Amino acid sequence: MSEQRTLFDRVGRDTRKIRTTSRRRSTDSEKYRPRGSEAYARKLAANRRWRASQGEEFAERRRRIERNRHKKRQRNPEQRAAHAQRMHELKEYRRSHNLCTYCGKPATEGRRLCQECRDRINANNAKIREAGGERHAKRVAYGRKKSKERKYKRFGMTRESYKAMLAVQGGGCAICGRVHSGHKGHKRLHIDHDHKVQETYGILVVRGILCSRCNTTLGLLQDDPATLRKAAEYLEAAQRRFEELLCHYPV
């Protein structure tokens, strides 16, 4: 009786822990699908359809994985270590003799796998990508959305305040007016803030929205107005000298 009570208490504690953890999670998240929900049922149905589409080869692969797991559970730590050592030696032997690390057949020159294993792995990866393409696209879109929100939150802004500041600047960079970043592969503009004020007072002050080139230029010149004026004077003097040369020696 005491053993049953102890077992019941342990199961009850575990159940309460699971329920408490479930309440903490947000049901709005795409990743969390509680059992019994419609999203969880759709996920199970999609998994069943995918397994059915794979045929007997997939079922045999699952049975082989379960057999290997059962064998691993039956081994003691010494047997596991010895098996891992044998697998490592086998892999090193195949690599040194230019054999496929999966099946042991002669590998393709300059590679660790034979052509047959490479084709089989590529075909399997293509099936996985095709089955999970829609889910992957949703995850990527969700990640990009959260990344933008984190960027605004870091500077104490929202998407609306960012758009309002950008509209005040004329829809582009506050210095050059460029409407995109100007850097290959990066189209978004950057939020510029005062580093010296942040280091001195611990306050994050947003100065404006800049393109990648202007933002990098300010950082390289250490946000020093005097240095920027000298740079502007230097460029203007060089331009004047060039115009004087053109007057004396017309092209």
Distance between the termini: 108 Å
**Large-scale geometry:** elongated
- How many strands? 2
Label the structural class: mainly alpha
Largest sheet: 2 strands, antiparallel
Q: How much is the radius of gyration in Å?
A: 32 Å
CATH architect. name of one domain: 3-Layer(aba) Sandwich
Mean pLDDT: 77
- Tally the helices: what do you get? 10
CATH fold name of one domain, please? His-Me finger endonuclease fold
Q: Residue ranges: pLDDT <50 for 5 or more in a row? A: 1-30
The arrangement of helices and strands along the chain is HHHHHHHEHEHH
Helix proportion range: 55-70%
Structure overview:
By secondary structure, the protein is mainly alpha-helical. Among the domains are: 89-131, no CATH class; 135-220, 3-Layer(aba) Sandwich (His-Me finger endonuclease fold); 224-251. Helices cover 67% and strands 4% of the residues. It contains ten helices and two strands. It has helices at residues 2-24, 38-54, 56-74, 77-96, 115-131, 133-154, 159-168, 195-201, 212-220, 225-248, and strands spanning 190-193, 206-210. A two-stranded antiparallel ribbon has the order 1-2. Helix 5 packs across helix 6 (133-154). The radius of gyration is 32 Å and the shape is elongated. The chain starts with a helix and ends with a helix. The model is unreliable at 1-30 (pLDDT under 50).
Provide tags for this entry.
elongated, His-Me finger endonuclease fold, single chain, 251 residues, disordered N terminus, 67% helix, 10 helices, two-stranded antiparallel sheet, mainly alpha, 2 strands
